[in-house]
User: Which sequence fits this backbone?
């Protein structure tokens, strides 16, 4: 039993070392261009060797514990057999013995037949302990409970009618350090609100709270008059489309990526979404067009192509609420213009929360919120905020947004002349 416990403990640690080695291997493969470009081969080789050394040490401990069970079992059985022989001989030879020699020979024979199964049983125990160690790590993941669950009396959320309300919202990732401190604002139906601020201000965190990727630790978020925590997640997220800063695609066809795996969207609707995302030109040139497998994380496509497919995926849903985290700094000019045009058409008439990185997008917003250290410190239109020489927005505008090659957007349409929104 003691050896088996040691084998289980050693196996668990060995699995942890294997995980560390796999992590280094994955990083080495995915980051090969950086490794080559910065001459990091020796450094990465040392990381791999270090992980191999840890795995070797732990593997040897497990092998020693496993190898010890055979000799230990033989020693215990032999010692027990010798003791049994001495005691049994004494019991047969003593004056008032009740045990006969013939019966004793029968017992010896039975004992000899038991020895081999006992040996095998001890070996099986080691195998069982090794399997238990592996199973424990698997069950740790299987038994994980989601932090975000529907309330027992959760209701179906009705389509947005009036506004989204953030009321005194507080949030902390670790339960100790707050990222958002009493954020309060409204987003009216059809309004486009841009959220700006320096890095670490809490912009992306704020955007993650609306679809309930996390729950607020204080305050409330309401759609119309319904706290989103009292609504089902399915009915909430059915109204929301998200275009993230990191474009996430899957090793599936163009059609499956745009339709998010659903069969309910017709081919015409998929094509309309691609067209609205300004992606038709490159999709039609793919070797199997909409049935082309794009590789892991869309690796066979360029950055601009991946992002246009992500926009098409958001657009095909025809969402009432759009959460957009722009990220186009690494794209070529042609892709950037196509994506910018697709976004500008997409947000028209939708209730949109945009984490803005582009001046043209910000200027088109109905309202701009400036976050600083997890608080809304300023809000208003671009013209209103930029007039204040001491405002944070003015500094952001001068440092981050007003780049020399930033195109001047056309004048914003009045609300009465706003074009109809693009629908998939």
Assistant:
């Amino acid at each position: 039993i003691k050896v088996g416990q040691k084998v289980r403990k050693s196996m668990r640690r060995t699995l942890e070392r294997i995980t560390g080695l796999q992590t280094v291997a994955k990083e080495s493969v995915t980051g090969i261009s950086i490794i080559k470009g910065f001459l990091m081969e020796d450094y990465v080789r040392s990381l791999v060797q270090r992980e191999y050394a840890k795995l070797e040490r732990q593997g040897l401990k497990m092998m020693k514990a496993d190898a010890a069970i055979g000799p230990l079992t033989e020693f215990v059985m032999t010692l027990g057999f010798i003791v049994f022989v001495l005691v049994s001989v004494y019991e047969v030879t003593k004056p008032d013995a009740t045990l006969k020699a013939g019966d004793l020979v029968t017992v010896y024979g039975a004992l000899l037949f038991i020895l081999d199964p006992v040996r095998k049983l001890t070996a099986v125990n080691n195998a069982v302990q090794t399997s238990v160690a592996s199973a424990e790590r698997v069950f740790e993941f299987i038994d994980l409970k989601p932090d975000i669950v529907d309330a027992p009396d959760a209701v179906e959320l009705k389509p947005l009618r009036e506004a989204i309300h953030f009321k005194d919202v507080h949030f902390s990732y670790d339960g100790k350090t707050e990222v958002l401190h009493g954020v309060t604002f409204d987003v009216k139906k059809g309004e486009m609100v841009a959220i700006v601020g320096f890095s670490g201000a809490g912009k992306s965190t704020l955007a993650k709270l609306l679809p309930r990727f996390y729950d607020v630790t204080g305050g409330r978020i309401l759609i119309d008059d319904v706290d989103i925590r009292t609504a089902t997640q399915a009915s909430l997220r059915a109204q929301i489309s998200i275009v993230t800063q990191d474009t996430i695609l899957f090793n599936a066809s163009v059609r499956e990526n745009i339709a998010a795996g659903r069969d309910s969207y017709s081919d015409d609707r998929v094509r309309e979404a691609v067209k609205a995302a300004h992606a038709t030109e490159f999709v039609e040139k793919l070797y199997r067009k909409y049935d082309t497998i794009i590789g892991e994380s869309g690796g066979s496509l360029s950055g601009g192509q991946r992002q246009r497919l992500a926009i098409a995926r958001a657009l095909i849903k025809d969402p009432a609420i759009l959460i957009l985290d722009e990220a186009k700094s690494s794209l070529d000019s042609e892709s950037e213009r196509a994506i910018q045009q697709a976004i500008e058409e997409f947000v028209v008439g939708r209730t949109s929360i945009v984490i803005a990185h582009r001046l043209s997008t910000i200027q088109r917003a109905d309202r701009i919120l400036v976050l600083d250290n997890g608080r809304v410190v300023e809000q208003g239109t671009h013209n209103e905020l930029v007039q204040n020489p001491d405002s944070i927005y003015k500094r952001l505008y001068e440092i981050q947004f007003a780049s020399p090659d930033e195109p001047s957007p056309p004048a914003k349409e009045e609300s009465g002349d706003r074009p109809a929104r693009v629908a998939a």
User: Anything to note?
Assistant: The chain has 14 helices and ten strands. Residues 404-424 have pLDDT under 50 and may be disordered.
